Amino acid sequence: MKIATYNVNGINARLPVLLRWLKATQPDVVCLQELKAPNEKFPEKAIQEAGYNALWHGQKQWNGVAILARDIEINETGRGLAGDPEDAQSRYLEALVGDIMIGCIYLPNGNPAPGPKLDYKLRWFERLHSHALELLQLDTPVILAGDFNVMPTNLDVYKPERWLEDALFLPEVRQAFKNLVEQGWTDALRALYPDEKIYTFWDYFRNAYKRNAGLRIDHFLLSPNLKDNLLDAGVDREVRGWEKTSDHAPVWIQLGS
User: Fold this and answer.
1) Which of 5, 13, 151, 200 could form a disulfide with 145 if both were Cys (CB 3.0 to 4.6 A apart)?
2) What is the dihedral of CA 249, 253, 254, 257, to 10 degrees?
3) Is the model's pTM score more than 0.85?
4) Is 2-255 a domain of CATH 3.60.10.10?
């Protein structure tokens, strides 16, 4: 099974890119982030014509997450994280896809930091920690996938010294990600490529993509009962170079039985 995650940075604006990539690579399951569309504006028909069923949790102008599945039954198990009844941002969607539980994540950016946006990010992380612990108690295999807005180590960021005060690279944010992984999750790309520079995001500014001045902020975390099923993983880096594309590239893993 091939599972991908892709921050599309506006699903309707990037729909031609998304459909082109789906046709070329045909992943079995896709987690999408940053839809930037309310529920009624999700392009369900185009997604279905591409061969995918879909669940989505939209929001006007901002955020939004979706899970697509090709020829696999998909059943929603939750949307949003417990712990803050006033949080109306569309950042988490969870579904049982076949026999795997998948949580699609668009974690808050947190900038400018310090400030209320960083505080919200850290509180959201705490809520994710609590829910992730509950998921690990299940017999069902679990994948947490998406845009975590964290560069876990210096290896995950071009010129780390330039990012020391950014909310994606602050010590407390990296520690929050580390604490999450240490619950028992496997960082799929790092498990296979422990020493390689791998980026999933390149800013639109300063010719970042051509200079390969990137960040690794899109991640796959696998529950312990999936660790040995991981066969391969990668980044479809070339998609970032397409016309009118997202500033993220799709990331994928291949699981065996």
Assistant:
1) 5
2) -150
3) yes
4) yes
